[in-house]
Amino acid sequence: MDGEKYSASLIRLWRVWRTTKEMMNDRGYMIVEDDMSMSLDEFSRRYAREDGEPDRSRLNFSCQPSEEMLAKYTDAPSKKNPNPTPNIGTIWVEFNADENVGMKQLREYMAHLVHGSFHSGIMVTVKPMTGMAIRLLRGATSITDGPKGGVEVFVEQDLLVNITKHELVPKHVLLSDEEKQQLLVRYRLKQTQLPRIQSTDPVAKYLGLRRGSVVKIIRKSETAGRYASYRWVI
Amino acid sequence: MPTPYPPPRDMPPKSILKNKNKNATVSANAPPGRKPANPRHLAVARHHASVLEDRKRVEGEVLEAVMTLMDFPTSPDADAKRPSPADAHLFQKAVIPFQPADYDALIEERNIADKCGYALCSRPKKKARSTARKQFVDTDHGVEIVDRKVLEVWCSDDCAKRALYVKVQLSEEPAWLRQGGYHDKIELLVENEEEHGQALPLRLKQEGATKADGEDEDEDADMNAAWAAHNDALTDLALERGDKPGQLSKANNDLIQDHITERASSNAPPQAPSLPAQTSDHTMAIEGHVPRINRKDEGDDDDAQDWDKHLPG
User: Fold this and answer.
1) Where in this protein does the record put region Disordered (chain B) (predicted)?
2) Residue A93 near residue A122, CB atoms below 8 Å
């Protein structure tokens, strides 16, 4: 039995790691296919220590955005800015092994991101961060010493299962800036007239949606087959 | 069939659709011909915006303070009992906007960084005897079982006392709601109090300046004079407020003292209060006033004409 052969924490981390890889793939980063379907056997061979416990420091990885994603995150060219640069770049994913994560670890992590010139980062922690660290994170995009794209923090427990694979979760697709403008012109709307979605929504967190972007939600419909709605991230 | 009112030739038929060029600008900030904002609504909106802004500013301040206090004290060999004046002053100033919850967060952050929870202590936190989650502790009333986390907060009981002494002085009210700003003074439990003259402007001026040995005595004298003046001013203020000496002052926000002074009771039987001695000629006095009619020492002759004097003309 697998459950007896491997320690519970290793199995747990294997699932977390797989979900993280799937999440990066869904966001549009380039991920090796094998990583997402890695078996527990393989995972334990590569990332377990001798005592059967997972070695978190070996799990950290970085990934590059794909061409498609770069295009999606590039603003439409305007008069002011005829050659816009994409608002996305290399991301660093770190699995923190500390029991308690506070401002100290968060600051070290942000310094590491800036030092390694990563655009953004994701930290996966064992337990939820302290309140002050969350407050620091909320203001981190305005703090000059943080990375450009900001830092996201996930708790391992939230990544045990991939929520987007649940049958009740509809498909969410981020619109690029150009698509958003087309949508607004097509329906003669201001963006404030769209329905909204919070950026703290689980799926919005999963996709790393930023404030002001528009997401297309495609649901199954009994009468129409498919039904698309659009939501503005606040 | 001709229509009864044919449209005039020179005018194109009027469209029932909305004006096209009006809708062309979808994302325009303000539609043309918009009514000017109601000044009252504008004022309300401004007010709320400034309240939110203030709140954000205070929260930022607290965050900054926690960040600096995490790395306190500035020197690695600082003593919690006798902190350096500069550190103590900074600490006092930084915790003023704190709520007790923020202070708890500071202690938590310091513990994560493996430091004693008291910001003026440089020692690491105490280690529990084992890594078990629950620990046995011997107390006065038998053995207690407590969380390991509770044990590993302070370096010593003394530090815990000093840190909690600060915590109980913090205001529960969020700093952005405090009326008239927030400038209550936080007291520290220190043993070198004479070195911390933060309340005096005199001290503030000289803080940080290196002083020669000869100046030391002068400064001490100045300090004492300043303290004396300060105390005098406080007594005057207390008198003005109507405080009586020996009573708890009305403006006092100190903690209640734990030493109790007992009044010595005398065994003499209580005396009934006596009226002030009355002389015989004032027996007719009504609350101290003797009506004229009963006065013996004044002549009655001009009294009869009294009513006349007050008449006009």
Assistant:
1) 1-41, 199-221, 262-313
2) yes
Tell me the domain boundaries of chain B: 52-190
* Gap between the Cα atoms of B124 and B107, Å rounded: 12
Mean of per-residue pLDDT scores for chain B: 71
The pair of three-digit structure tokens given for residue B43, joined into one six-digit string: 């004022």
In the beta sheet, which residues pair with residue B289?
Answer: B286
At B56-100, the pLDDT tens digits run 888 888 888 888 888 877 777 777 777 788 888 888 888 888 888
**Highest mean pLDDT of the ranges A201-205, B67-71, B94-98, B137-141:** A201-205
Identify the sign of the CA torsion B105, B106, B109, B111. negative
Between chains, do B27 and A102 touch, taking CB under 8 Å as contact?
A: no
Instruction: Classify the complex by whether its ipTM is higher than 0.95, answering yes or no.
Output: no
CATH class of B52-190: mainly alpha
Can you tell me the distance from the alpha carbon of A163 to that of A23, in angstroms, rounded to the nearest whole number?
Answer: 10
How far apart CA A189 and CA A89 sit, in angstroms, is: 31
pLDDT of A48 > 70? The answer is yes
In terms of Cβ atoms closer than 10 Å to its own Cβ (0-12, 13-18, 19+), residue B83 is: buried
The whole-angstrom separation of Cα A70 and Cα A87 is: 8
- Distance, C-alpha B246 to centroid of its chain: 24
CB contact under 8 A, B112 and A104: yes
β-strand partners of A122: A93, A152
Domains along chain A? 2-159 (3.40.1340.10), 163-233 (3.90.940.20)
Q: Which residue is it, tokens 């600096």?
A: B68
Test mutation, A132, A141, A187, chain B, max B CBs within 10 A: A132
Task: Give A24's pLDDT tier (boundaries 50, 70, 90).
Answer: very high
- Quick: pLDDT tens for B240-298: 776 655 555 555 555 566 677 777 777 788 788 776 655 555 667 777 777 777 666 55
